[in-house]
Amino acid sequence: MINPTYLAQRTRSSVNWNDAQKRVLKSYREWVRAAPEIQQMYSLNMPVSAIRTKMRQEFERHRYVQQLKTETLNFWKQLTHVLKYFRAEEDPKAALPKNFIQGFLEGRN
């Protein structure tokens, strides 16, 4: 059973960049530690290492955010939302096209 509030955290704002960095690192560590629970909660058929790798990629994707207020987003995910993160690895055709023309020529919207 999926309990979306189990890993939820309160949204907070940092006063300065040093405080924000500490909070983000703490949040990252908590998410990485929770990977086995997430695997079990969502009944994911993939190794915990793949889940941790995807978490790392998502944190790295937002590494250079310049807005101090953008620190925490509280997402409540269902199984389909979680699987969306792994879709490109499972199905190479599911990856988004590099540009509009390529997608247009492939017949994608």
From TrEMBL:
One of its GO terms (cellular component) is mitochondrial inner membrane. Keywords: Electron transport, Membrane, Mitochondrion, Mitochondrion inner membrane, Respiratory chain, Transport. InterPro entries: NADH_Ub_cplx-1_asu_su-6 (IPR016488). It comes from the Eukaryota. One of its GO terms (biological process) is response to oxidative stress. It is a peripheral membrane protein. It is found in: Mitochondrion inner membrane. The keyword Transport applies. Belongs to the complex I LYR family. This is Uncharacterized protein. It comes from Aureobasidium subglaciale (strain EXF-2481) (Aureobasidium pullulans var. subglaciale).
